[in-house]
Design a protein that fits this description.
With 470 residues, this protein is α+β, with helices and mostly antiparallel strands. It is built from 13 helices and 19 strands. Among the domains are: 40 residues, no CATH class; 150 residues, no CATH class.
Length: 470
């Protein structure tokens, strides 16, 4: 399969050289690029892609301008590909794409793995055994516990299924051909069929097969027992799939090729796609023959960065302080900017983070997470205006913007004062989180990130309280 490797947030454009490919390969690559260029994320999800975090990026999915990449000069020998905030590993029309984080050097995906380990609450010391061989499979297995817990939190998937019985407790439609074949001369039993609303169905069976598949690998089975919630979800699936048969794996996969559409069990569709991806990783992907079908996982960089910072700060916040995380993507924790004379609130806003003291209940800082290039180490005017509006709304004198950078980037760590009469009261701080680039192992990367996170959090508290309390 043809492979195209890119990195996210390449606003200047990556010139893809097609001179080394045959005429047929060039046409294949152009068709694949054309099928995903400027295509909204929501449409890519409908075509089979898994979006993570799923519900967290709902608003991003509804944004028609949100896409993976755009292509210019497609018919030339050097088409220009501009990537956005989306990372991922996916295939379409016979071409495999890898869009890595711009902060990950070489073939390793340490930064993406590390952010996922924090967001999914997965122990960051886990070394994935297939690293650099099949990144799509790596991340599919890595995300399985998170998708499983989300799905099971909605309850076990139940559906009506037809079961066949041959006993004396008739409670369905008699199956005369089977009855005559099995019970003549009469032996006191009746062959019949019945419709039952059961949790032991082809969807939960698919999940069970995935659990058993992972458990067969000594290096991967540990992800099934990372925490109590994961262990509980695994036990619930296994305890309610009594008809599990390892030899029926291909049959169960084929029964799950159609997408699920259920008004209540909404998380099971993403879990279904992930399970099939794991179980068929060494085969031609199902649906690959369908035109413009997407098989893979996409990660929203902005959402993942925001959730990663939330996880890091929440685990070290302490008892005296509180960190609120309004989320515009899920619609949770929103505030209002204006109120009309009739008392009607409107213009909902979602600051990324609100740092406050518990006693007294005082807002200390409004913080904003930005996963994007700060061109020439400068913050855009819109970012200043947005954060200042939030600070004004909450009567807060301190705003903090947090962004990632590599040693090759221009680093901006500074605190600005508001010009005018309140210059000694209102401050705006820009803090960078340096992403290590020279680590040879994931455990080394995780250790360095822990040290860097501690320094960042200490600086935040020194800015807010003139002390390091994290």
């Amino acid at each position: 399969m043809l492979l195209i490797k890119l990195s996210d947030n390449n606003y200047n454009g990556y010139k893809l050289s097609l001179t080394e490919y045959s005429k047929e390969e060039k046409e294949t690559i152009r068709k694949a690029l054309d099928s995903i260029s400027n295509v909204p994320l929501a449409e890519l999800e409908e075509r089979g892609a898994i979006i993570f975090p799923s519900k967290t990026v709902r608003k991003d999915l509804d944004d028609k301008k949100r896409s993976i990449l755009s292509v210019q000069n497609l018919t030339s020998e050097n088409p220009t590909i501009t990537t956005k905030n989306v990372m991922g590993f996916f295939s379409v029309n016979g071409v495999q794409f890898e869009i890595s984080s711009r902060f990950d050097s070489g073939e390793k995906q340490f930064f993406l793995h590390y952010m996922l380990s924090k967001v999914c609450n997965v122990a960051p010391t886990i070394e994935l055994t297939h690293a650099n061989k099949d990144p799509l499979y790596d991340f599919a297995v890595y995300l399985f516990p998170a998708f499983l817990k989300k799905a099971v939190s909605q309850g076990l998937f139940r559906m009506y299924i037809t079961r066949e019985y041959n006993d004396s407790n008739l409670r369905g439609v008699i199956d005369f051909p089977r009855h005559f074949r099995n019970n003549i001369p009469f032996n006191g039993k009746i062959a019949y069929r019945t419709r039952e609303y059961s949790s032991d169905n082809f969807v939960t069976q698919l999940v069970r097969h995935t659990i058993e598949f992972i458990a067969e690998n000594n290096n991967l089975r540990k992800i099934l027992s990372l925490d109590d919630e994961t262990r509980g979800a695994v036990q619930e699936i296994c305890g309610n799939t009594g008809s599990y048969d390892r030899l029926s794996r291909n049959f169960i996969i084929n029964k799950n090729l159609r997408s699920l559409s259920h008004p209540y069990y909404t998380e099971y569709e993403q879990l279904r796609k992930l399970c099939i991806m794991i179980l068929t990783h060494d085969k031609v992907s199902y649906g690959e023959s369908q035109q413009n079908r997407i098989n893979g996982i996409l990660f929203d960089g902005a959402s993942l960065w925001e959730e990663y910072l939330n996880a890091v700060m929440q685990e070290r916040i302490g008892d005296k302080f509180k960190l609120e995380h309004p989320n515009n993507r899920t619609g949770q924790g929103g505030k209002y900017l204006f109120k009309k004379e009739n008392g009607y609130n409107f213009t909902e806003i979602y600051p990324d983070f609100i740092l406050k003291e518990k006693d007294p209940d005082k807002i200390t800082a409004i913080m904003d997470a930005k996963y994007k290039h700060l061109e020439d180490a400068n913050v855009q005017r819109e970012d200043y205006f947005q954060l200042l509006a939030y600070m004004f709304r909450f009567n807060c004198d301190r705003g903090i913007l947090i962004y990632p950078y590599s040693p090759n980037d221009k680093n901006q760590n500074e605190t600005l004062k508001l010009a005018g009469e309140r210059e000694n009261e209102v401050t705006f701080s820009v803090l960078g989180l340096e992403i290590p680039q020279t680590c040879v192992s994931f455990s080394d990367f995780a250790n360095k990130m822990g040290e860097i996170e501690s320094k960042l959090l200490d600086r935040i508290f020194k800015l807010c309280y003139n002390s390091a309390v994290f």
